[in-house]
Design brief:
Blueprint lengths: L18 H12 L5 E2 H9 L4 H18 L4 E4 L2 E4 L7 H8 L5 H10 L13 H31 L3 H14 L4 H13 L3 H19 L5 H11 L18 E11 L2 H7 L1 H21 L3 E6 L2 E6 L2 H20 L9 E13 L2 E3 L1 H12 L5 E4 H7 L7 E7 L8 E6 L28 E4 L3 E2 L7 H15 L6 E3 L14 H8 L3 E10 L2 E10 L5 E10 L3 H22 L1 H9 L3 H16 L3 H17 L4 H15 L9 H12 L1
Helix pairs in contact: 1-3, 2-3, 4-5, 5-6, 6-7, 7-8, 8-9, 8-10, 9-10, 11-12, 12-13, 16-18, 18-19, 20-21, 21-22, 22-23
Length: 656
């Protein structure tokens, strides 16, 4: 399992570079109890080539296997099978081990799982793809069951640390396994690691949101409340049931740190010390303003207030004091919070609180500006003239898991408490833009994560190169911040960037240089949901700085082209056509062919594709595209059987 691999009896790797040979071996390995007909194998892997060619390809594949492993294939009459005694197959061993209830056997079975069957492998034949997906799903489910059983056996024997490792392995396979998250929360609590149990709940909530777009269920939330209230004993299995109290009206303040992962990458120890100090400060202000801290762990604080004035006053004081503290730190070390405040119905269960009133406050925090406060209309009306603050309406916001849009307001940067006359400065209100009806993207300036400030130029250059290359992709709307205040984009959240530029996706990343190597991380995030739809890491030797920049730019642009616009055809085209001029002509030709409405547009496409052929005479894709353009003109508005255009189309198709 995992990537395809074959070794001989001495442990030396046997190379089978042809992907269809790998697929054939994998299929015969899993189906080795039943010999398969040659017709079945040919259809499974070469159905698109025609019967005669498929049989020929099968003979060639079997010949390659026999050449490398003479005793592996058993051919009788018209059937083919793998000799059961000639090899050991990890999947077969796995299937035998999962039947056992012995800890050692279950551990061995779990070790065999290195990832999906034929990881990263895909073929175009639908029958084989269906078989592969079913096999992958079956093995993945079996592995999760093995991990669950193994963790339970280890816990029975008091081997909690080993059980934690097994459950983490289970979550690597199935991140949204809520039961495994709960088991880890119980284990951590039983081991006296309460803070890790609380963090595990955060990971559970994030995984469920990312994978399934749901929130943790009642059982998990109840367990969270019991851990917070220290109702669980050190034996992880004991807990007390609690009865939720009726809902009541309260004001919720939710504060969360911004850019946390970036700050940790910069300096983990220093960030942790600063964050702990700031969290303590927030907790102190909550108590001073007659509030109650319901949750404070990791990088967030959730507090409940009886009066909206107290909650908003607390939020403004916190941001004002944190801003003063940040002024004494270098920009790279500053820890900034966003705060959301909402008044609504909540359910209080001893020292825990939940409900839509809490959920809306959390969504408002995500809408807040860096170092700012965002409140709902119920808070604005609740404080009325009792607090000196300016409210800037940002529209009705449709947020995740809340049925009705929220009327949201930015509160100007931290002001003063009630009955004081000084008003805070006005903030810039971003009027939401209409997202275009085609894939839309903004590139957030890539960040230099190295300690060397002179590497900023590399980050800026890479950002500019990526934008310059992306703008050439037809059918992609690219927003590009070229204003004098473009650096402000660095500190904006993904949702803020999406609203500011009116786009659906945000591309961002970081660059770290160590010695003669450079690492670039890039990720594509959907602005509204915050879901990551693509991410990758690029490691390069720094022999030629500009060559590395070009390589990484091409890989990122190809990924965006494939993910957002033209699909796998774009990946194939970009591999076939390497000249920038040819690539630009190819894109222009596609645009003229597919977006054009006249015969002149089609002729323009022909001209452009012929230019690609001139620049890239070995690119078969160019001939194929040109062939299609001539064929399109031949049949433009009618059917023509005999035409010089069809002759040219046929000639180009054969050359392709």
């Amino acid at each position: 399992m995992g990537s395809f691999e074959v070794k001989d009896e001495n442990g030396e790797t046997i190379e089978f570079s042809h992907r269809k040979v790998q697929a054939l071996l994998a299929y015969l390995s899993l189906e080795r109890s039943r010999p398969r007909s040659r017709e079945r194998l040919a259809t499974l892997l070469w159905s698109r080539t025609g019967d005669e060619r498929a049989r020929h390809n099968l003979r060639q594949a079997l010949s390659r296997i026999r050449k490398q492993c003479p005793d592996l294939i058993d051919s009788r009459d018209d059937t083919v099978a793998l000799k059961a005694t000639a090899c050991t197959v990890d999947v077969i061993c796995f299937s035998d081990l999962v039947q056992s209830d012995e800890i050692s056997d279950l551990q061995q079975a779990l070790e065999l799982y290195r990832g999906d069957l034929l990881a990263d492998y895909s073929v175009r034949e639908p029958e084989f793809q269906d078989w592969l997906q079913q096999a992958r799903g079956r093995i993945r489910r079996q592995t999760c069951e093995v991990a669950d059983r193994l963790a339970a056996r280890l816990r029975e024997q008091g081997r909690d640390r080993e059980a934690v490792d097994v459950l983490n392995r289970l979550l690597w396979i199935d991140p949204a396994n809520e039961s495994a998250h709960r088991d880890l929360m119980l284990l951590f609590t039983g081991m006296g690691r309460r803070s890790e149990a609380l963090l595990q709940y955060q990971e559970c909530a994030a995984a469920l949101s990312r994978e399934l777009d749901v929130e943790p269920g009642p059982e998990t939330r109840q367990l969270l409340g019991e851990i917070k209230n220290e109702k669980l004993t050190t034996s992880a299995g004991e807990n007390k049931s609690t009865r939720p109290l009726p809902g009541n009206l309260a004001t919720i303040l939710y504060a969360d740190v911004a850019r946390h992962s970036h700050l940790v990458d910069e300096n983990e120890d220093e960030t942790h010390r600063t964050l702990c100090h700031y969290l303590d400060l927030i907790n102190t202000h909550v108590n001073e303003c007659d509030g109650r801290v319901m949750y404070s762990a990791g990088d967030a604080v959730l507090a409940q207030f009886t009066d909206a004035v107290d909650a908003l006053s607390c939020a403004l004081m916190v941001q004002h004091e944190l801003d003063d503290l940040n002024q004494s730190l270098d920009e790279s070390r500053q820890v900034c919070f966003r705060i959301g405040v909402n008044s609504g119905d909540v359910i209080e269960d001893h020292d825990d609180v939940y409900g839509e009133g809490v959920d809306v406050a959390i969504r408002l925090e995500a809408l807040a500006q860096l170092g700012g406060v965002c409140v709902s209309d119920t808070v604005r009306q609740g404080v009325s003239s009792r607090i000196s603050a300016d409210f800037q309406f940002i529209g009705e916001q449709q947020v995740k898991n809340i049925a009705e849009p929220i009327r949201a307001y930015y509160v100007a940067e931290p002001g003063t408490r009630v009955n004081q006359t000084e008003k805070p400065a006005q903030v810039n209100v971003l009027t939401p833009l209409v997202v275009p009806g085609k894939p839309s993207l903004v590139v957030k300036p890539f960040v230099n994560l190295s300690t060397e400030a002179e590497q900023d130029f590399f980050a800026e250059g890479l950002t500019r190169e990526i934008c310059t290359a992306l703008v050439k992709i037809p059918s992609l709307f690219l927003a590009w911040d070229e204003s004098p205040a473009a650096h402000i984009s660095r500190d904006m959240s993904v949702s803020e960037l999406g609203r500011r530029f009116g786009v659906r996706f945000v591309l961002s990343g970081g660059i770290r240089r160590q010695g003669d190597r450079v690492r670039v991380n890039a990720e594509l995030v959907e602005a509204q949901s915050g879901q990551c739809v693509w991410a990758d890491r690029f490691d390069r030797e720094l022999k030629d700085l500009f060559l590395v920049q070009d390589e990484i730019t091409e890989e990122i642009v190809t990924a965006m082209d494939v993910k957002l616009v033209h699909g796998e055809a774009a990946r194939f085209m970009r591999k076939a056509v390497t000249s920038p001029a040819a690539l630009e002509a190819m894109y222009q030709g596609w645009h003229a062919l597919y977006q054009g409405t006249s015969r002149q547009d089609i002729r323009e496409a022909q001209h452009l594709f012929e230019e690609v052929i001139r620049l890239e005479p070995e690119a078969g894709f160019a001939y194929a595209s040109a062939s299609l353009a001539y064929w399109a003109e031949a049949g433009f508005g009618r059917v023509i059987v005999d035409s010089p255009l069809l002759d040219r189309s046929t000639e180009l198709a054969r050359r392709a």
